[in-house]
Design brief:
By secondary structure, the chain is mainly beta. Helix content is about 5%, strand content about 30%. The radius of gyration is 23 Å and the shape is elongated. This is Transporter.
């Protein structure tokens, strides 16, 4: 049987997704490793001369932490992972939190709140 509605020059049909739509990221819940639900404190703490290593900064996991980098940058940070050589979590950019990671060698000092 011949199909009168078939057009060989038409674009292909869109891919078929599951009936419930595209896969979604699970929602963040407090303590799940996602960003904090509130902005950091408004007051910047005084810089402390802490030696930076995985053991010293580990106590700051999932706490508001102010970080000073050796290049002169400083910012609020909410660490969710602390490894032997690196740290990652969420950096405050003035309006919201963005995922960020850096090498521990780049951190000059830090203060947990």
């Amino acid at each position: 049987m011949f199909n009168f509605f078939f057009n060989p020059f038409a674009p292909p049909p869109p891919p078929q997704y599951p009936p419930f739509g595209l896969p979604r990221m699970p929602p963040f819940t407090p303590g799940s490793g996602g960003p904090p639900l509130a902005p950091p404190p408004s007051k910047v703490p005084n810089q402390a001369p802490y030696k930076v290593d995985p053991g010293s900064i580990r106590r700051c996991r999932r706490k508001y932490t102010y970080i000073w980098l050796k290049n002169g940058d400083s910012f609020w940070f909410y660490p969710t992972y602390i490894g032997k050589k690196s740290i990652s979590g969420y950096r405050w950019v003035g309006v919201w939190w963005v995922y960020y990671g850096t090498d521990l060698k780049k951190i000059e000092s830090f203060v947990c709140v």
